[in-house]
Request: fold
Amino acid sequence: MNTLNPKCILTNRDLSYSNSGHILPCCWVNTQFNDKYIKHLFKDNLHIDNNDTIEDIVNSKEWKEFMNVLKNNSDEDLPKQCKIFCSVKLEDNFEETKEKF
Reply:
């Protein structure tokens, strides 16, 4: 069990489309190509050009495994970006807490 509140699972948050042509659970994981869990979402078979529908992508084995990680892994074994942005209460907006420049 973990203390994560994954907004991609628990809210109606929009999916993200990366500049590499991949659909992602959110924009916060868009640059995490090397994370041991997130990198699987950037596989060639999940590229938008290699699928007929977005549903094909989000129903893939890689996506199901990623969502399972978010739901079941311990806090110590979660993607860093997910811990940063989804360890707050669902009603809290992390972006509003950042300093504006």
In short: The first strand starts at residue 16 and ends at 17. Residues 97-101 have pLDDT under 50 and may be disordered. The chain is about 30% helix and 5% strand. The two ends are 37 Å apart (CA to CA).
